[in-house]
Amino acid sequence: MSEKKEITLTINGEKVKGNDGDTILDICRANNIYVPTLCYLEGLSSVGACRLCVVEIEGERRPNPACTYPARNGLVVKTHTEELEKYRRLILELIFTERNHFCWFCAASGDCELQSLAYRYQMDHPRYPYTFPSLATDTLNDFLVIDHNRCILCGRCVRVCNEVVGNHTLDFGRRGWRTTVIADLNQALGESSCISCGACLQACPTGAIFSKVSAYRGRVEECQSIQSVCSLCGVGCDINVLVKDNNIVRIDGANLTSPKGPLCNRGRFLQVHNTATRITAPLMVDKAGITQTASWEEALDSVASAIKDYRRRYKRSSIAGLISSICPNETVEAFARFMRHTVGTSSLDIVDGKAYRTLTQGIKASGKSILRLDTESPLEAILGASCVLVVGADPLESHPVAACYMLRARTHNRAQLVVIDSQDNCLGSRADVWLQPNAGGMDMVIRALAGLVANKSERLDQPQKVTSVAEAAQASGLSPALITQTADIIRGGQVVVVFGDGILDKRDPGLVTSVLELASLANTDGPKWISLKPRGNSRGAWGVGVDGGYGIAETRPRLLYLLLADDGYIAEDCLGLAEQAEFLVVQASYVSPLTQAADVVLPSPIWAGRAGTYISLDGRVGRSQRVLEPPPGMRDDLEIIAELAKRLEKRRRMP
Amino acid sequence: MTHLSSVEDLDKLRAAVQSQLAQRASKIEIKIHLGTCGISSGARAIEEAFTREVQTQKLSNVVITEAACIGPCEREPIVTVVHPQAGRVIYAELTPERVTTIVERHLIGGKPVSEWTLDTKLPQFQLQKIRIMHNQDMDPRSLDEYIARDGYRGLAKALTQMAPDDIIAEVGKAGLRGRGGAGFPTGTKWTFVRRATGDEKFVVCNGDEGDPGAYMNRAVLEGNPHSVIEGMAIGAYAIGNVRHGYLYVRAEYPLAIETLQHAIEEARRYGLLGKNILGTGFEFDLTVFPGAGAFVCGEETALLASIEGKRGNPRQRPPFPANKGLLDKPTTLNNVETWSNIPLIVLNGAEWFASLGSDRSKGTKTFCLVGKINNSGLIEVPLGTPLGQIVFDIGNGVPEGREFKAVQIGGPSGGCIPIGHLNTPVDYESVTALGAIMGSGGLIVMDENNCMVDTAKFFLQFTRDESCGKCTPCRAGIPKMLDILTKITQGKGTMEDLAALTELAEMVGSASLCGLGQTAPNPVLTTLRHFRNEYEAHIIDKRCPAAVCQALFRAPCQHTCPVELDCPGYIALAKEGRFEDAYKLIRQRLPFPMSVGRVCDHPCEVKCRRAQVDAAVSIRDLKRMIADYAYEKGVEFLPPVKPRKPERVAIVGAGPAGLTAAYELAREGYGVTIFEALPVAGGMMAVAIPEYRLPKRILNAEINGIVKLGVELKLNTRIDDIDSLFKEGYKAVFLACGAHKGDKIGIPGEDAKGIYDAIEFLKETNLGRKPEVGERVAVVGGGNSAIDAARVALRQGAKEVSILYRRERKDMPAIPEEIESAEEEGIHIECLTAPTKVLTANGRISGLECVRMELREFDSSGRRTPHPLAGSEHTILVDTLIEAIGQRPDTSLVKDSGVKTGKGGTIAVDPRTLATDRPGVFGGGDVATGPKTVIWAVAAGQRAANSIIRYLQGKPLSPFVHRDGYEPIEVPAVSPTEEEVKERKRIEPSEIASKERRSSFREIMLAYTGEQSREEASRCLRCDLEAGAQE
């Protein structure tokens, strides 16, 4: 790649420098020359719609928008002539009177770009009469409200929905003065294809799109903005958390127009307004069998003595530790060290350890040395793919932002999207092909596809594993033509295979092997595959706390120490283990069936109350910050583990 | 042989088809013109009728063929009959019944039925230059016929004899400019695309013709589809790397789309589209893309987005389509007509093309001439043809003798060119200089009944609805401008609104993203520039001069009447036979109903909406009947008079203005003295209008009605100095002394004996002094006094009376009915003639040396200027000459009085308050405006009285607003029945025979009978009731 050529132009009489390919606006911004904008948003395509950034360019008959005009060497530009400033004021007046912009009722007041411009241009009142259109307010979405009365039709929401999210729910409907932003074919947002990612909300310069959970909670200037990383799933989106008075006001994507910018509804909204019941003090079951609040000392002593008791009475393996992979690496490491060295048991597992074992055994069975966890492709590979093959996963549900990569690849890079899943699948309806084999036929279909793809490239390693199309069709209930057609799409190109819980939860390493085989055959330059791991720090936790055995269920633990933290999802395995245990310690943030069954409950901070590092599903390390002060009396997970260790070690050392 | 694999094949086919067609020429060919216009006017039924007739009559030598629209769409269905012996004849406005006659008389009898034919020798056809439309008379579905007419020879020449760069150079040299409106040089555009890098490029034809009233492109696509296809193929070859083109045609043109698709299929079959065209290895194919029905898709970037399947929004340029067009590939986009010109340029050369047109705008251009025009339809003229020639010679002017006002050119993006610019050559530069744009060729003619504010509003409504809504200025600015215009048309506008409108228009024009927004303010800006007076009339006077803006008036007739007489009211009363009530209603505003009922030039009737059904209601004659009825029945009408006030007002002149002012002031209780220099009262009504039009007893009766209110009338009293009036104690003076001084022609010998000025001549006659009249009288002039003088001269015993007029008869300002009457009486009107010298014998006129005139360029009033035609000098023998070329006022009385004079020797007054520069002195009627008609003088009298009253009361002057009548008369609110609305003739009152008229001063026109007036009154549509319903 050659360096961009430097160009020089004259703006407002000053010589300024920029690069070939920049727009005039780019160069103005780089040189601290203020040019007002409304429809422009860095990272989105520029459309020149609001006309606030119009500038005078020598040789042009009319003012041109700076945001679209390609800069050339020697251009002479004026950004603030009297006429331009008059136009800008006039345009602002038109926008204000076109719809019902009454700042004093608006959730965005104080954070509104239109309002700021009005202040800047000292527009204390518009000189034209208000039109007072009666426009609907769409409140049917769970999180978002679109108030068309405050919309300035800048189209930032439309472009972010289309260009970044790739979902293209929003667009313009009708034309001229009747133009409005519509969802799909003018449906209510809540009844449309909207995935409630909230990217539109973040892109909106006014209060036309606002969030039900954040509205009227506070303005940006009153908030502290803390950069962090979302731990809800393995995508690991960078987030900005806006905090006021130890409350989360809202969560934004740290860089909206980057692939991970859109966030998902969980990451953006659910964490702001979580209705689950917090546990803020330790709980113990008393002699009468009633759960009572206890002091930290009582609770920790009780756990420590139970461990000692079981360790004395039974084999060490009768004590087991189980930790959620929602916890950061530091916590998982400390927990593992505590269980292994302090307690002295090797019965240790992660709640999603089963998926890990299925995956690694599948890789091993494939017999290919290049298939290792660390050879997985980054999510960015999806954007460069000519075909994305999604097997046994519904990323739109489980990893929505990863799904956005796929939608983008499809709408903008013309990638083919193929979904193979027996279950209901949200992405399936947006794919080019959606194969829905019978539950038992999945493996057959994948192997048949592998065979079809391989026949052409003649690189089949294990021909005996191939299933014929007819067999696969019979087993899966799919038409043979559809299978062949799908193979044609997959074959010969940049194929990225993505698989998830539909494969990993099956406890069938053979299925993993088949999928990886297909991934290997589909690409000429090595397999490209991504496994959608179940929890936010699965990859990190797997690397630290899991052995390659068969899980702790095999050891039938009598005492189970379960560090659940704020994991809202309880795997069936956990419940089974908990029921079997004679003594159950649960360290968790929220009340759940597990905490209700526990002998001792230790309160655990939520994500916002802890700091730590996470490893995303594709291996990127993210660092989360503590954004909220925990409620009084709360202790950090690491502190709890240390306290327990202290109690156990003390005794050991004291003769 | 249908597949042509070489140029030789093409030549062979052409020869074969030509000989085939030559054989057909021995038969009678009937071409049915089946454009959209023809079909919608019933051309299919005509085709069936011909087929049926030819079959029943067993005519074996007749072939019936189909063709496209040839232009005069208004007169469809049109059929061309080509007879081997009788030649080519075009029939218009055919009905199946007429077909039978044509078959009998023309096809069998061999003689064309001349009353239904189009006279192609008329300027309408002779001034056109047909190039684009040269194939409109052939079957558009026959590629063979196109080839026979040199079709695809241009493509063959381009592919085999020309290098791509040569073609572009030729197009550039020809000076062809984009026919879509902006006029960008086509050669330059192609060069850009040729130079743009890319191994795939596109050519696109813009057939999304969406301007209201424009359908030129439709006609070409329907009539000459192969010319566009051939043009695009040549363009594709010239630009290079083009293998595919798109024709974007609006979906509202189903026939054009179908014809194009048929043509493309045929061209493919012949090997003129597809791979290896004519064996040259050149590959090109076309797709027709029906537009989605949005005007904005005519904008190139929106059009391309639409073809790509996206929302038809324009995008900001640069990058231009020449570099990044369809699918981001270099693309050239040209209008239908531009493409259609290409084969002609390639085949005939740049010089041939540039031989027509003006300096920088070459070639011909098709226009749609629509609106208030006699010959409406499609025309083709060289660029640079003067606008006036298009409107008046080709279009034959405005129907019904109404006054031409403006031409709207360029559709919603264009502007209005007013009457003062008829000499403007219609080319890109000249039209742009006037604030309009050439556009794709829509010319909408407007007359005095078009309100320009309403016109601007109409176009803004269109652009508001058709804006894509993307950029703020266009989306939000146009509705705001429309709001202001609407406010103005409702009479709620202020002068500040005009400033706001201009400010918005300028911003929207410069800051909008695409051409739609950039040009949307043009209709507003041009009307503001050329018709500001109409805006001001709406704002200040709350009047719509064209009587269009319904919120400002009850009925157009009443609104147009200078005194706002309640015409629908008295007509409704007359319909019920309540003539006395009708009379009372009239008298509340008009002190001279009998006189005005006889001599009024009735501007009300020009605006009468009944004219859209058949003819205007005879409002004047109804008024006369009502007034005469009251007079004969002795109905006494005395308005209430307020108690006497101390102030006295002096009025100079006892004409209609002075008398009316006196009447109004007397009613208010002011003492009024009228000073009249002549021995009679009535001004021009008494001395200039002949007895046979307005009998003196009628006039005097009405003057008596005014004097009865206590007005002092001093006859034979000339006022030379207005200061003396103030000295005598008059608190205010109204100058209403008329315009009695006749203008001189300014030719040698004018001081000879036997020469009169018309006013003097009529005055003498009216005062009973019998001026001496010879045997042969010439009257010079074309106004009412010329006609009056001529007819009086006839009655005074002249044997021969001629009127010499330097323009054409249709230009004569006199009332048309009066001109007709004069001719009936035997007066000869010699048009296009002007005297140059008076010949004398013994100090007396013996003849006139005259010259013929020729009308050339248009003057600021829209009339052509006469120029003497060299060598046409001739002499006519006359012994009396009456000069009736104009009058001016005698304003010597205001000398040194502080009252200023204005144009044409008039007294300068504020037109709204009639105040002069000197406080307390007012002026109105002819002395302030120059010669006008009675009703205007009456209006001036009312206006002056209003101002004088306010002045005497110490109130600030304000524009006059008519007060309600003092005696409420209930007018029946009954709409006309369906039967009454049906088309029927206007009732003309009877008149005495012309023979009897010549020798007598007896009144010519007779009043309606009661029955006649009730019948005529029932023709009124009662527009006033609709106005009420709207409120």
Notes on the protein architecture:
- The complex is a heterodimer of chains A (655) and B (1031).
- With 655 residues, chain A is α/β, with parallel strands linked by helices.
- Helices cover 32% and strands 18% of the residues of chain A.
- Chain A is built from 21 helices and 27 strands.
- The radius of gyration of chain A is 29 Å and the shape is globular.
- The model of chain A has no long low-confidence stretch (mean pLDDT 89).
- With 1031 residues, chain B is α/β, with parallel strands linked by helices.
- In chain B, strands 7-8-6-5-9 form a five-stranded mixed β-sheet. Chain B has a five-stranded mixed β-sheet with strand order 11-10-14-12-13.
- The longest helix of chain B is centred in the last third of the chain and has 19 residues, at 934-952.
- The relative contact order of chain B is 0.07.
- Chain A binds chain B through residues 46-52, 54, 62-65, 68-70, 86-87, 90-91, 94-95, 97-98, 127-129, 131, 152-153, 155, 171-172, 174-179, and chain B through 294, 296, 311, 313, 315-316, 318-319, 464-473, 475-480, 483, 500, 503-504, 507, 510-513, 518.
**Helix tally of chain A?**
21
| Mean pLDDT across every amino acid position of chain A | 89
The outline of chain A comes out as globular
For the report, how would you describe the main beta sheet of chain A? 7 strands, mixed
Strand order of the largest sheet of chain A: 15-14-25-24-23-16-17
Largest sheet of chain B: 5 strands, mixed
Distance between the termini of chain B: 72 Å
